[in-house]
Batch of 2 targets.
Target 1
Amino acid sequence: MQQLYNFAVGPLAWVAWAVFLGGSAWRLASMWALARKKDMNAVAYMDVRFAARSMAHWATPFATLGWRANPAVTVATFAFHTALGLLLLFAPGHAVLWDYAFGVNVWSLPEGIADALTVLVILLCGFFAWRRLQLPVVRFVTRPMDWLVLALVAVPCITAFLAKQQIGDNLLLSTLHVLSGEATLMALPFTRLSHAIFSPFARAYMGSEFGGVRHCPDW
Amino acid sequence: MSATEFSGIAERRIEDANLVRGVAALTRERIERVVKAVTRGEAGARLAVYHETCMRCGMCADACHYCISHDGDPTYSPVGKMEQTMWKLLRTGGKVDPDDIYGMAQIAYTECNLCRRCVHYCPVGIDTGYVMSLVRRICHRLGVVPLYIQDTAHSHSGTMNQMWVKDDEWVDSLVWQEDEARSEIPALRIPFDKEGADFLYSVIAPEPKFRTQLIYQAAVIFDQAGVDWTMPSSPGWDNSDMCMFTGDYEMMGRLKRCHFEMAQKLKVRRIVMGECGHAFRSVYDVGNRWLGWKNHPVPIVHSVEFFWELLTEGRIRLAKKFEEPVTIHDPCNIIRGRGLMDKLREVTHALCSNVVEMSPTREHNLCCCAGGGVINCGPPFKGVRLAGNKAKADQLAATGVHTVVAPCHNCHGGLEDIIHHYKLGMDTKFLGDLIYDCMEKPGAA
C-alpha cells in the first residue's frame, strides 16, 4: 500500500497533471478551431468589455435574476466553488505537495478551517445529490454523467476528511484520496467538469451578444 | 428514471397533418444522416459547449412561462425541453425513431417561443433559443414541420411574402388605404418607390391581409410628422419571416436579401419597420448572420425607436393623452433582442396618463406565448398556447388595468387569445393606435 501511495503522489501525480493540462489545452484549442470554422457568426460579436460585465454580474451572488430566484442554489454554488478552490490550492496537505513537487512554499489554510471547508463541500455535495433525487425539474434531466461528476468531487473530499480525522485505515484512505483526486483532475477536460474551462466562454459570448447586439442585460 | 416518471411530450401529442405525413416518410437512417449534417455540418463549438456545460441544475425552470403555467412540470422547463430534443439527439448520435422526431418537432415548434427569458436564469450562459432553433432546423430538413407554419413558409417561397398576397393586391391595399386616409387628410400620399427617401417603411404581410388599418395609421402619422418616406410596390416590402422559425434558413436568406436590396435600390438612408417583433429579429439579428453580414447593409430601426424620435424631436405633437390606465407588455424580440425597454416606456408615458407596470417587467417580462412561430402553427396548437401562458394571464390580471400596450403583432395575437380565454376583459393597443388617436393632425380636413 505504501508503494502504491508513493506511486500515486509521485509519477502518477505527474501523469495526472499532464493529462489535465494537456487535455485542457487540447480541448480548448480544438474547440476554438471548431468555433473559427463553424461559429464565426457568433465569434464575430465577442467583446471583452461586455463579456467582463456579464461575468462580473454572474460572479456576484444575487446580482442576477437567476441567482435571486434560486437563493439556496446560489448560496450553495458560491460556497461550494469557493471552498473547493481554497482546498485545492491551500489545503495543508496540498501545500506539502506543492513544496514536494515544485519546491514552492505555498501559504496554507489553518487546519481547522481546512477541515470545516472539507465538511462544507461534502455537505454541499449532499445538497446537490438531494436536488437531483428530490426536485422533479432536476431529476428529469439528471443522467449518469451528472452523478459521475458529483462523485468525482465528493470522493476525494470524503476520503480526505476520513484520513484527516483518523477514521479507518489512514494509509488506505490517503491513497484513495490521492487516486480519486487524480482521477478528478484527469477527468476534468473530458467530462461535464469541463464547465470549469468552457463555461467562461459561454458566459463571455452571451454577455457579448446581449451587450453588443441586443443592448440588453443578460442577468 | 425520467422516461417512466415523466412521459413528457409522449402524453400530450397533438395531431397535425404535416407532422404525421412528414414522420411517415422518415427512416432511422435518414434521421441519423440529417442530425449529423446539422449538428456536425452546420453547428459547431457553440452547440458543443452548450451541451457539455449545461449542468442540469434546473434553474431555468423558473424562467419559462410554459413551466410556470404547468405548475413546474419538468418536461416544460427549458432544460427539460432540450433534454427531450437536442440533448437526446446528441447523446444517441441521431439514432432515434421517426416517432421521436414527431415529439421533438412538437416541442421545438409549439412549446418554446425562443423568447430567451431563460438567459436571465442560466449561470453558464446557455442559449435555449439557439438550441431549439437547431432542433427546428433538423425538423425542417427532415420535412417534419407543422402544417400551418409550413404553409406560411411556402408563401414566402412562392410570393416573397408570408400571406400569399399577390403583387397587385399589395399595391391595391396601399392605394385603398391612401384613399381612405385622404378622406381624413386630403393631401396625404403613400409614396411608392420614392428614390432617395429618408426611410423605407416595411411591414409584415399580415398588415395588408388582416390589419390594413395599421397602414392607414402609419401613413397619417408619417404624413403629419412631415417625414420623407416611401413604401416599395414590388416584393421586398414584407419584412416578416416564418422561414426563420421553420428552420428554412436558405429561404430566410433570400427574404432578407430581397428586403435589404429593395432598400438599396430605392437608395433610402434607413429602413423603419412596423410594430412587429419577429420580423425585427429576422432582419436585425438572424437573417444578416446567415448571409454573413455582421452588421446591416442598411440601418434598421424599429417603430418603437422611430416613434420615440418623432416625439422627442417634436415632429409629432399630442392633442390629448390616453386617459385610461395602461400596462406595458415587453415583446421579447425588441426588448431582449434590441433593448428598447426604456424608449418603449418613454413613448408610452408620453401618450398615456396612467401607466401601471407589470411584474416582472422590462427585460424580465414574461412572453406572450405566440412568438417564435408558435401562433403560426395554427389552430391545432392553440390550446398549447392558452394552457402554456396562464402565467401571463395571471400577470396581466394583477395589474388591474384594461388596456395593454404591446408593440408587436404576434404579442397582440397571443395576448388577445389569453385575454379572451381567461376572461380578463382587456384590450390591446399598438403604439401606432395611441399616437394616431392622440396626435395633432394639422392637415386634417
Target 2
Amino acid sequence: MGSAGTVVLVTGVSRDLGRRFARAAAADPGVARVIGVDVVPPRGDIGDVSFVRADIRNPVIAKVIVKEDVDTVVHMSVISTPGSAGGRHTMKELNVIGTMQLLAACQKAPGLRTLVVKSTTTVYGASSRDPAMFTEDMEPRRAPRSGYAKDVAEIEGYVRGFARRRPDVRVTLLRAANVIGPHVTSPITSYFRLPVIPTVLGHDARLQFLHEQDLLDVLLHATRSDVPGTFNVAGDGILMLSQALRRLRHPTVPLPSFAVGNVGSTLRSARLADFSPEQTAFLTYGRGVDTTRMRTDLGFEPTFTTAGAFADFAAPLAPAGGGRAERALAGLAERLSEPVATPAGGRRG
Amino acid sequence: MGDAEIIPIGTRGRQGRGTGTQPSSAARGLAPHKPAPKRPASKNPASKKPASKKQASKEQAPKAAPRPEPTDEPVEEPAPTQGIPAADWLTAFQHAAVDVFGDDWEPQLARFLAFLRRRVTGDYTVDEYGFDREVTERFLMSALRPIAQKWFRIEVRGIENLPADGGALVVSNHSGTIPVDGLMTMVSIHDHTGRFLRPLGADLVFRLPFVSSMARRSGATLACHEDAERMLRNGELVGVWPEGFKGIGKPYAERYKLQRFGRGGFVAAAVRTGVPIVPLSVVGAEEIYPLVGNLPSLARLLGVPYIPITPFFPVLGPLGLVPLPSKWLLEFGEPIRTDEFDAGAAEDPMLVFNVTDQVRETIQQTLYSLLMQRQSVFR
C-alpha cells in the first residue's frame, strides 16, 4: 500500500483539528490526494485538500468514497460538546448516526484498505472505583448512560462490528486523552481558560493530556503504519488537577461536589464552559490510561509529555510575573541570600 | 440591702494601701532591702493589687536615675512594634532560624524556601497513582512519626523479612475502627527500611472528599487486582488488609479474631506476579478505639459501613477521637514464596484458598503469641 500514493478521506474538516490534520496529510509524500468532508466549509486555509460538502448522515457519502476511489478513511467527526452544532439531540445524531452511515458506506467500498477512528479515553468513564491506569482491554466500571461518553461507546461498538464484517480493512481505533494546546477549544480547555476556576472540594483528579500536534502526528502515523487495533494515546506522566491549576496560576474556588453541578449548569448556560456530568466526574476522580501498547505495538512516541503539553497550553494564559505568593517567595529567597549572610557570619565567627 | 454598702474592697475614703508610706508586703518582698522612696498618691485608691505591683516594678527603676514624677501611665511605654530597627528584626529572624533549622540554617532555609516555591508553582511530579513522594516524606511521615514513637510506642519485629528491593505484598490484620494501623504500618516500614508502603484501599476511601486526595497523595490506590498487579510488577511494596471493613469495624469483644480474608484476590495477584507474601501481625490497634456499639441505620443513610460508638465517642465529642495510648507490636512473619507455583496457579481456586488460609493462620498464631508476650494493653 501507499505505492502510488493513497487517497485519504477526512471527516469533520470544518473544525480546527480536522482541517489541520487534512492539511498535514496532504503534505505527506505518501498521500496522493486528501478529500475533506463536512456539512459546513472549513473556515481556515485548507491548502491542497479538496473539500466536498456532504453530510455523513446521508448516503451521499458512499458515492463520494466510491467515486474518488478512497482507500483510507480518517473519521474525526465525533464532537464532544453540542456547542455550535445545536442541542444534544443534534450532537448525538451527528456522532452516532453519522458514524453508522459512514461505516455503512465504507462497507460498500471495495477499494477501502484503512479506517482510522479518533476516539477518546472518555469511554473509560471516571469514578471512585476505577483502576489507576486503564489498559485497552478494560471496560468502564459503570456503563455511560448519557452524553459524549455514551456516544463514543456506541461508536466504538459500531467500529468493532465493521472490523468483524470487513476483515480485509485495517481498523485502528485511537483513544486519545484530553487534547490540549493553544489552539484547541474543548470542554477541558474552556474550563482551564476560566478566569476563576471552580474545583471539587476535597478531591484531586489525575489528568493526562495529549498535545494537539501529537494528535495530528499519531493520526498520520496510524494512516501509514500497518497495525490494527485499539490504542490509548496520551502524553507521558500524570498531572494532578491541583498541580495543573498551580502551574496555571489562576485563582480557584473549591466547591462541594453537590454545588459543582449547579455552577456547571450556570456556566454552561452562560456559554463560558461546558460542565456535563461526565466532565464533573472527570474533574473529581480523574483518569489515567496505560500507553504501553501505543509505544510497543503502534510504535508511536508523543513529543510532548502531559506536563509539557499543559505548559504549552498554559504559556499564553498565565500571568507574566507569576502569582503573588510566588513573587513573595522569590523575593524572600533573593533577599535572604545576601544581606543576612554577612551579619550571621560575623556574629557567629 | 444596707449591708451591701460595706464591701471590704477599696479604702473607704482613706488612703489606699498602695499610696501609703509603706509598700505592700508583696512589694517589700520583691524590692531590695531599702526603704521605698516616697511619692505622692497618683493611683486610683479602689484598685489594690495592680497598684501595689506597679509600685514594686518601679521600685528598681529610680535607683539608676530618679525620673520625673509619672503622671500619665500609658504614655511611658511605646507600642511594642514601633521603633524597633530593621537590624533587630533581622537578628531576631536569624535567632529564630537557628533555633528551627540548627546551625547550618542558611542552606536549610534556602532548601525549605525552594520546596515551598516548588509547591506553590506546582513544579513537582507525582507517579501514575498520584503518589506525591515529597509531601509524603516531609509532612505525612513527620506528622505520624511522633504518634508512632511516643504515643503508641511501636515495637517492630522481623523487619528483615521485608525484601530490600523488588515487589512484595504485605498482608496485615485490620482493626481499630479507623484505619490508623495502616498509617502506622506505613511510617514504621518507611523508618526501618526507607521504602514506601503502597496501601490498597477500599473504594469508599476514594469516594470521600479530602480522604481521597490524601490517600492518593500518600501512595494508596484502589484495592483491585489491576492496580495490585501493576504495582507489584513495578517492584513496589504493596500493603493489603484483606479483612476490610469486617475487620476494622468488628466489636471490641471480638478483638484479635481474624475475620474472613476476602476472596483471596490478594493471593491471586501475588501468585500472578510471583512476589513473596509477607504476613504482618499488628497488636495494639484493637484497643485504640474500643468499638462497643454501632448505628447501622444512620450508617446506611450516610452510605458508610458503620458509625462507631466507643466509650468516649460520641459522648465526649471531639475529645473522644483521641486514640487510647495502647502499646503496639508489629511483627513481620517469614515471607511466603509464590514464584514456585506454575503459570496457571492463580486460576486454581483450591490453591488460592490454601495459600490464603496459610497466611491467615500465620497471622492468627502470631497474634496469639504476641498477646501472650504483651505485659498489658498500655505498657
